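Sample entry (867 residues):
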Amino acid sequence: MGQYYKIKAKYPDAILLFRVGDFYETFGEDAKKTAEILGIILTSRNNGGNDVELAGFPYHAMDIYLPKLVQAGYRVAICEQLEKPSKDKRIVKRGVTEMVTPGLTIDDKLLDHKKNNFLAALHVASSSLIGIALLDVSTGEFFVSEGNPEAIDKLLQSFLPAEVIFAKSNLDWFEKKFGDQFYHYTLDEWIFTLDFAREKLLSQFEVLSMKGYSIEDLTAAQIAAGACLQYLAETSHGRLQHIRTISRIHPEEYLWMDRFTIRNLELLYPAFPTGKALIDVVDTTITPMASRMMRKWLLLPLCNLAAIHRRHKIVAYWIDHTESRETMSAHFKFIGDLERLISKVAVGKVAPREIQQLKRALRTLVPVKQILVQSTLSELQTLGESLQLCEKLTDLIDRAIAEDPPATILKGDVIKAGYDEHLDDLRHTIHNSKELLLEIQTHEAQRTGIQNLKIGFNNVFGYYLEVTNKYKDQGLIPDDWIRKQTITNAERYVTEELKKLEQKILGAEEQIAIVEERLYNELVASAQDDIAPIQLDAAVIAQLDCLIAFAHNALRFSYCGPEVDESFAIDIKAGRHPVIERQLPLGESYVPNDVFLDCDTQQLLMITGPNMSGKSALLRQTALICILAQMGSYVPASKATLGYLDKLFTRVGASDNISSGESTFMVEMNETASIMNNISPRSLILLDEIGRGTSTYDGISIAWSVAEYLHDNAYGRSKTLFATHYHELNALAGTHARIRNFHVATQEVGNKVVFLRTLVEGGTEHSFGIHVAKMAGMPKSILLRAQEILVQLEEKEIDEAPMKSALRKTLTPRQDALQLSIFEHVDPTAGKIKEMLLDLNINQLTPIECMLKLIEMKRLLEEDDDV
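Predicted structure, serialized as tokens:
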């Protein structure tokens, strides 16, 4: 326990898993937390007169229990026995071999193969300048940037790190800004200094300056990156050969989307559990690294036209070359997660089966490279030539590793026969020794006449001769046999000859384990030289997989190739919502719509129309089509000519932030203010129901003023789709040259309204809210009364006087509608029966249900008679 407390003092804020024999034990407060999280028994042991809480689990159950501790938000320090127990050592040496935190893990059971697992470091240089570093230990990706708080917030929302680290002095600032949105951990102030951070970076990349990485002048970003490396060192992550480069994120090279936009457009997560996000629709990739790349492409669409056109060009090639595309997809299925495999090699935690998978992946690159080099597209030829086949490594693995190796090196039989002469000799000894065991068994059986004599083995006293009680009682046991154990049905003995052979066998077996482990570690070490080329291979395969997925989606779902140019116009013909159209019932097709926006003639579309008619879908699909195009994908439309966007803003839906004391309207105004303060000439803005969270006149005033501000703004004429139920805003089109009125068409058939979901020029004054309430199952009595009130309101010019006065003068008092008699006099019971009848859906009632309703009504009348 003295050894435990000494190690625990170095990791006071982590749960310490302390290896004791075949168990990982926790003590004290750690034991209480562990028992609660894992649902295991909490016991205690006496330690110098005091009871200490104790909870543990078998070492082989680590893969089951470790993920639960980390996912519960705890840092876990794994303390191993660093030497083998022996009779000469009372206490073996122990030490922490790994610290596992949410942001630092390479364990497959803790990782989602479709997502990166980033550790983020922040350095707050000033109120207007923050440096950020993003590191994924499981893949070796390392990014840095710096900017104002809004830019850093955007990067955090895009990369969604599993853990954020920063200086202790910034804790209040971070919690005020982000609350508990991110798991975070604080470090000492001295870590966040330029001299210290710069030395860490220069040492890691073995360079004299950071000029080659284009971050020489980004001092805040360098400090954040250095903090990442120091955090790795403090958490026993010393093998970082796979972190070989660092990349600068240039915000101006990507489409700006703030966290509201990412959330409102449901790019990564649907608003409701039963829905789908855009990533669920577009990600038809095969390899895990391509899934991770697809997420980055989705959150960081390109602004560079040359790069966009390059992706579109490759997608077009795969569409036209079906056979090559299908062959490539078939090869991708055998590659697996090449990126994370080579990272495991770098940190020395790669399993034999994973080494064998690495060989298969590299061998698969041979036909992939051939297809690319022989293609007729120069961009693909360049990618093909960049692939490194690493023949020396694949040949080494082929010669050294068994075709079907065990899961771990500890199980043995990992190294192939014929690879190492010494290992082959030891194995030969084992093989012959087993035959000698059989000879001893046969000899002793013949000598004693014990026909069912067996030789067995256990960890307590090694090999033994087992005699059943039937022969034991017959006096057949020789005097030179030494009795070792009595069991229910037999006795166990050893002989001098058997013990000598045991020493020979066990010595060879121990040597085999040592030699196999040494040879395996040498192979893993030799693979270190191929880390950089294999990381490049993984990036090329991920890129190809993403672009082939775009081609697959285009063919399957009738997407067109967009024309992205330097103009300021958005011209979409027959555009569709990529997610909604995939979720429609069988046989139902999505109604496409045209959208045209530019900065000179049609800058702002004021879109009116009823609820559920498709206004919000139209807004979102326009944004999603632009995002897909700038990702490099084809788009759901018959034709799309798009001037590239540099910023995309949305203000859609209603929500609140109760924990921060913000009402629905305050959240709406925060989001709207963020848009108004950051617009640009190339922005696309989606506004849905601005001002609905307050009184009618307040709301109309705000919405009207926002529309005017966007139209007249001196910073640029941002293209805007403005959906509203405030029909009064239609008047803006008459006074502002670039505002146009549109509405989503409906058709009234009898008492029903049919939503045509077609965008038509011109405004409308009908919202059909009562019709939507009816569709939702609102009681009919409420619907009837609402209709009465609506008729009365529409007969008056409400806007001639303040709203309260108008309502007071306009509405006739309610005549106790729920108790109106179906007879000529007022009868409360009859009113109840009328209400029941109005709420009935006759077409959905079974005969039995009709009878039960009649009985219920009759009972009401009988009760009334009794009164």
